[in-house]
Structure formats: C-alpha cells, structure tokens
Amino acid sequence: MDKKDIYEHLATIYLDASLKKKKKKTKILPPLFNLPFFIFLFFIFGFTIILSAFINRNKSLDFQPSFVLQPAALKINFRFDPGPKETYSIALNKLDLNGFRTLGFSVKKVDYKKEPVALRVRFTNQFKENSEIYVKNIPARWQDYRINLSDFKDISEWSRMREVSFVVEGPGAKEKRGVLYIANVKLLK
Fold first, then answer.
1. Do the Cβ atoms of 182 and 121 come closer than 8 Å?
2. 20 to 30 A from 172, CA-CA: which of 58, 74, 156, 188?
3. Distances from the Cα of 64 to the Cαs of 20, 58, 79, in angstroms?
4. Residues 155, 156, 158, 160: what is their CA dihedral angle, to the nearest 10 degrees?
5. Which residues, in sequence order, are bridge partners of residue 78?
6. Count of domains for the chain
7. Of the candidates 38, 11, 32, the residue with the CA atom closest to the CA atom of residue 22
8. Which of the two residues, 32 and 66, has the higher pLDDT score?
9. Average of pLDDT values for 167-186?
10. Which pTM value belongs to this model?
11. DSSP element (H, E) containing 48
C-alpha cells in the first residue's frame, strides 16, 4: 500500500471525504420545478394582477384623472360690512383647460345659524372673458360639488386661462361675518 492509498483510506474513515471524487446522483426534476419556469409564472401572474387592478380602478366611478389646483383647505373669513362679498382667487397662469370637463371642490361654512351664504365660482381667461356659476345655500357640513365647464357659457377660449375665483356672498344675511372652507379644488377630465 502506498501513501496515497493510506491517505485515501484515512480520509474515508475519519473525514468521510475522499480525494477521489465520487459521482453524485443528481435528481432530474420535471420542467415544472425549474427556476426559470417559476420566474416566468411569477411575472405572468404579477402582470395579470397589476393589469386587472388598473383596469378595475379606471372603471370605478370615483376615479377620474384630475389636476389639483388647491389640495389644502382654504379658510375664507368673510365680512359683509364694507361690501356684500369676499373673494379668493387661484391663478391658473395661462393653463390650457381644453382637456378638462369638470371643476370639483368641497365646501362648508362654519355657521350654525340658518344664514344664507352663496358661493359664486368665476373663471377668467387671458382675453378677460368672465363666466360664473352660483352655488346657493352652503351647508355647515362638507359638501362636494361638481360643475361642468360647459356651464360657463361666456368663455369661448379655454386654452389660456387666467384664474378661477370663489366669491362668498351673503344675500340678505343678518350676520355680517363668518368663515367658509373650500378644499380639494381640482379639474377633472
């Protein structure tokens, strides 16, 4: 017995290892258990789930593509002492509104009395064309409003808009002051 055989025998006994490489039996897995196949299935199912969620989201009634003009709530302290109205304007900076159909916003007043307060919504374009819509009897709880841009009849060109204004009016109000909140002012397609 030479040295190599002795080392081989000792390695086999004590270390359960051998210098000679033994052939290991490899398991042949069916193609279902291959890693590339699982990656392919993962991407197919993931893509299907994401696509179906996106399609269902677009079909929902609440989802509409929008452009937010004023996300935070605006607090308008109005006083009808010197004049019958108080105005807040949002500059549109020559914004093109041709692709939009609706103006949406939420509004409430902080007045627990039954005082009538109206809100006049006015658009102005770069050619100084004005058109306005009245929202009457603003409630003391948040109320969502949607106004079609086609209802603003006196605006002929929507491609270069200057501003949208909210004018608080108190026709016949006995109380001459109060607070009005406007939130989520956005344009909807």
1. no
2. 74
3. 71, 7, 36
4. -90
5. 178
6. 2
7. 11
8. 66
9. 76
10. 0.60
11. helix 35-59
